[in-house]
Every structure is written in structure tokens, then in C-alpha cells.
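Chapter review: from sequence to fold.
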Amino acid sequence: MIRIVLKRIFALAFLFAIMSMNAQIPPPNTPWVKIFSEEFDGSSVNTSDWIIRTDELRGFSSNSLDVSGGTLKINNTYPAGGRPLGGWIESRRKPIGNDRYGYYEARIRITADPNGRIWPTWWIWGKNFRNGAPGPTATEFDLMEYSGFATRFFENKATTSHHYSEKRVIDGKTKIDASIESVRTRNAFEWHVWGMYWTPTEVSFYYDGVKYLTTDQPEDAANDPYDMSLILSSSPHTVDVADYNSGSGGFQPNHPDAATAAQAGQTLPSFEIDWVRVWSLGSTVGTSDCQGLPNDICQAINITNTNFKVRSAGESCKGSKNATISIEATQKLQYTAVIEGTSMSNEFDTTTSFDGLGSGNYTVCITAEGLPDFKQCFELVIKEPQN
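The C-alpha cell string follows.
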């Protein structure tokens, strides 16, 4: 008789992270679930999902929001003799704790190159003393941010940043942002998808499904106790305007260059949003759906614990060394199977086998090309046959 013992071992590195919040994400066989989708197909902002900020003293008006033609336009105006105005919406859904982990994305554009005269941003932000909540600044993720600072420091390109909670200094800095070389490859003035992947041990940013930046302090964001809001905002970026850039609630603490700042009487472009979507790992509310996610994220989570069938045939006689281990994969990818402790390694997409084996204990581990965090192992005991 041949007795085969199979033990499945899942080794995704982030499952072993121990966070002060005991933050954990589901195992790799957990499906992605789309928990939020805003397509802006109506004629107004859905206030069941979004809070509209109306604070003209600080530069935000509900009149700046235009939902039409399947998109949201946040218009920026600075009339001669008037006050500069833009718009701001933030999600009523405020992820906190384990609920925050998943993938966030929006398809957006700035309708023309304003040379730094407006400040549109697609961002995720927690509570802050500047909008009425006590306590220090929370974590801030700027998935796409453009302003006079982009013109001043980043060759008129949109930037991406992770501001550490409380704006604390970690390793000599308070944030991580995309490099000059990186920002040159992204265009905020055309339609593109800007996304963010968030787990307890990783925060990475994506442009049209391609990862371009990973934060160096994911644990700082994981330990932030504040709930988070999805925010889409835009306003003219001006030099100092009374009450607009100063005091509690002001959102332009630094001035752009006067030559590129918004001026009264100018016609300014809009910030346009086609849709916003959010996927969660293992949520019990929503629709199981991987479509639309970047391939590396979708595949990493959806190689399930039933993807591989591993079979063994033992030796026909003692010492014959003709036992085999065969592997069959349901999902076609570029895999590598290795018998640990030996030089035996096979590359395959659906099936492979190891031949010429003797009786003994074997650990077969499988990895997948393009999925550096994925590893699945099988432990087999092939007993020696009777005489």
C-alpha cells in the first residue's frame, strides 16, 4: 500500500505580519469583492454615497459640481472681483481597520493643461484638525495630485504621495512620493486610471494597471486609527486670498509662483471623473469580481487552494526508483515547481511531473511568474513498498 499525505502550505509574506492593530487580510483563496462603484451616470451627485462640502469661505461650492454625460466635472472659477471657487466631495463610506484593505481606483483627467493654476486631487484621507476633528493629521494618500507645486517642482506633472500619519518624521522625511523620472511617464491631462493597493504590509500605486510606486512605511498607515474618506476635490490654486489660504480649514498653506497662480478673470479647466471603484478582500457584502483589477493583484489573490492537483505513484519494487509526482494546474500561468532540497525543477503552464524518484519524504513548492509573493507547497510521504 502507498499512503500519500498532502499538506498545503500557503506562504504569502504579508500573512505573517504582526501589526499592533492585529491587522490581517484574508488568505490567498479569498475572492475579490467589488464593494463600491460610482459611475456618475445620473444628473447630480448621489448624496447617499457622497458628502458635498459647501464652504465658499474656503473655496468650495456645490455649484461647482456638474454631473452630466456620464462624468462628474468639478469646475474651477475665479471671476473678476469675485472669490475663487472649486468643489469637493468625500465618501460617506469611511473605511477603518481591516475594512480599509483592498484596491481603490478612479478614471480621471484634467480637461486642459492649466500650468499649475488649479489644484485637483484624487485622494484618501483621514480625520484632521483642519476640517473640524480634534487631534493630529491622519494618513494621507494622494493617488493623483496636481497644483502649482507640480509646475514648480515636478515639470508640470501630477504627483503621487503617501504622507505619514501626524506628518511625523520617519527616516528623515514625512512622506514618500514619486520621483521626477516616474512622474514623466504619467499624463493627468488625458483619461487614465489611477489606483492604489492597500494591505497591512503594502501600499502600492498603479497607473493604468501598472505599479509605479510602493511606500516605504506601510505599517504606519496600517496603524493609523482614523477612519478614511475617498475624496475628489479641485479649486483654483491662488496666491494669498483673505481667509482662503489661512486659518482653520484653509487648504492652500503654501503659495504657488505668482506667475503661474490662478488670477481673477481667467478661464480655468475642470477636473473630470469618469468613475470611482473599490474592491475589498473577503468582504461579505458586494459582488465577487476580479474584472478590472491589475493582473498582478487579481491573480495573486485568485490562485485558489484547489488550483493544483498533485498525485504520486510509488515505486513498483523496493529500490527501483521509478516513483513519480505529477502536478496539474487549473489556471494556466507560467509556474515553476521545485522539489526542495534537490536540484529538480520544472517550468510548466498546466501539467508537469517528476520521475525517477525513490521512496521518501518530499516537499514540492510551486511559484508563479509575475507574482513574487505567491508560493504554495505540498508535502508528500511516499512509503517504501513491501517485498
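Two observations follow directly from the output. The longest strand covers residues 371-382. DSSP finds four helices and 24 strands in the chain.
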